[in-house]
Amino acid sequence: MAIGQRLIGLASLTMIPVHPVDFVEVAGEAGFDFVNLRLAAPHPRLPYPLMGNKAELEKVQRTLDQFSVQVLDVEVIRVDDHLDISSLHELFSVAKTLGAQYVIAMNLLADEALAIQRFGAVAAVARQYGLMVMVEPFIFSETRSLAAAERLAQASGGSVLIDTLHFVRMGEDLSALPERIVQTAPYVQISDGLMRSDIDLSREAFTKRLAPGQGHFPLAAFLRTLPSNTPISFEVPDNDRLHDIGPRRYAKELFTAVTRFLETND
User: Please, which residues bridge with residue 70 across strands?
Assistant: First the structure.
């Protein structure tokens, strides 16, 4: 359910233990307009149930249609020494079939010149399927600043993915990001967090984020800089809460929190 002109979505990391079919269903039931889907495993040794599984992909498509949910973006491309560019055709073909517009990529190459070359190659394949590469900078990658992410995005014809948690942890000021970045962002990812020195940053990033309004990030100020029609994907993993109340209740709880946040601040 769009808030004003703004579409709102749920990112897959929010419920990464949940099967994609169930994830799409609970997101749609809760009222989200779109989802982010993880088509590729976050780690090479972790299997994922969609790629190469025609039956599961068909179930996902039927569920998307049933609940009128779009797929905005897919993830995650690990740009490293082991990436086989030719292997991306299958993933990007599936992304196109599901209706995705963007693919998220993270840089794991310390050599920036090599990273620029590899991102360019990824983007060239992505364009064949109508996809734009979103460069996601964060402290656990080799791209740990907005400036570095911009260089990769410019070289590959892509865009920088603004994730509020990653930007805060990189030391960026959410309330004063360059207009050229904020005004042209295809979409953004939002979550909240605490400003304390004892935070386990890895646990926070992957399994313990806060819904907007529950933490200390200047999200209201950031929201005021965004165009009124920029889609927002909410990436709020909290595995403890998910385990305690289940995915359906957690999706509805998040939808209530994000609509309250947007109606108050947008």
Answer: 34
